[in-house]
């Protein structure tokens, strides 16, 4: 351990249960340590809003943990480590989906991957749920964030990349409090072969259902426009066009 109480060398025994979560396996652990060196990583920094084994980390999902890391050049990044109980064979598919999204300036930048790991840009911000609950909001901020998210969803729809989890909007978008930048994360369930529903899924979570929509309704009353929105969304689902998207944004 270094002078920082949350910063550990990648081989530190304090990290074993995180590197091999949820069940330790010696072969798996050895392979992952080799990957950490291969990715030029030096430290894992136990910071974030998710608590696991009394450690703070960036996130925990069904397929992996996300940790804050530092490489040998002292650059801070985020690392997704595949869980030992994951059904996925490799992180390659998620890497490819991120690369495609990155071409359109969507998602955190991805740098490299191994079978068990995905190295990407570290985002300094809050989950959408946390941001909407803890920020002193005003109509301008809300509209800026909502339109930014929907613009990115429209782009994903146009390139036929379905995220797959934007119905759970609250923990799949990171919002920066400094500049209101919104970043869609976690493309592990993405697909190029499903019918896209990014915008319609995100719209439900923003304006119609769930904890975020309840926060928005405190400041902007969209309930009286619900029928109009539903008609425009139905039209958009039939024809994902700029014209139909613009109609939705205009009503917002």
Number of strands: 12
Biggest β-sheet description = 7 strands, antiparallel
The number of domains is 2
N- to C-terminal distance: 51 Å
Question: What are the low-pLDDT stretches, counting only 5+ consecutive residues below 50?
Answer: none
Mean pLDDT reading: 95
Radius of gyration: 19 Å
Oligomer: single chain
What string, H for helix and E for strand, traces the elements in order? EHHEEEEEEHEEEHHEEHHHH
Helix content: 25-40%
From the helix content, strand content and strand pairing, which structural class follows?
alpha+beta
Shape: elongated
Instruction: Count up the helices.
Output: 9
The percentage of residues in β strands lies in 15-25%
How does this model look, in words?
With 252 residues, the protein is an alpha+beta fold. The chain folds into two domains: 7-121, Phosphorylase Kinase, domain 1 (2-Layer Sandwich), CATH 3.30.200; 126-251. The chain contains nine helices and twelve strands. Strands 1, 2, 5, 6, 7, 8 and 9 form a seven-stranded antiparallel sheet that branches. Strands 10-11-12 form a three-stranded antiparallel sheet. It has a two-stranded antiparallel ribbon with strand order 3-4. Helix 8 runs antiparallel to helix 9. The chain starts with 6 loop residues before the first strand and ends with a helix.
Keywords:
252 residues, Phosphorylase Kinase, domain 1, seven-stranded antiparallel β-sheet, 9 helices, three-stranded antiparallel β-sheet
Sum this structure up briefly:
The protein is α+β, with helices and mostly antiparallel strands and 252 residues long. It has helices at residues 16-19, 26-38, 92-102, 128-134, 139-158, 198-208, 210-217, 226-238, 242-251, and strands at residues 7-9, 41-45, 50-52, 55-57, 59-60, 64-71, 76-82, 110-113, 117-121, 126-127, 173-175, 182-184. It is elongated, with a radius of gyration of 19 Å.
């Amino acid at each position: 351990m270094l002078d920082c109480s949350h910063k550990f060398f990648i081989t530190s025994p304090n990290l074993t249960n995180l590197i091999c979560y949820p069940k330790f396996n010696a072969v798996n652990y050895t392979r992952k340590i080799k990957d950490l060196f291969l990715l030029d990583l030096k430290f894992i920094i136990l910071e974030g809003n998710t608590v696991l084994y009394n450690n703070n980390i960036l996130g925990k999902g069904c397929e992996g943990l996300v940790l804050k890391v530092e490489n040998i050049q002292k650059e801070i990044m985020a690392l997704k480590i595949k869980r030992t109980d994951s059904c996925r064979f490799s992180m390659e598919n998620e890497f490819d989906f991120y690369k495609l999204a990155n071409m359109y300036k969507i998602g955190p930048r991805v740098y490299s991957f191994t079978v068990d790991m995905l190295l990407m840009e570290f985002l300094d911000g809050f989950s959408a749920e946390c941001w909407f609950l803890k920020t002193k909001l005003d109509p301008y901020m809300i509209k800026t964030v909502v339109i930014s998210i929907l613009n990115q969803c429209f782009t994903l729809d146009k390139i036929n990349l379905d995220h797959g989890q934007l119905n759970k909007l609250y923990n799949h978008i990171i919002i920066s409090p400094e500049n209101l930048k919104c970043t869609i994360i976690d493309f592990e369930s993405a697909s190029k072969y499903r019918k896209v529903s990014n915008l319609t899924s995100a719209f439900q979570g923003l304006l119609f259902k769930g904890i975020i929509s309840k926060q928005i309704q405190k400041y902007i009353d969209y309930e009286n426009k619900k029928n109009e929105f539903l008609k425009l969304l139905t039209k958009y689902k039939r024809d994902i066009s700029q014209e139909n998207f613009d109609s939705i944004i205009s009503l917002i």
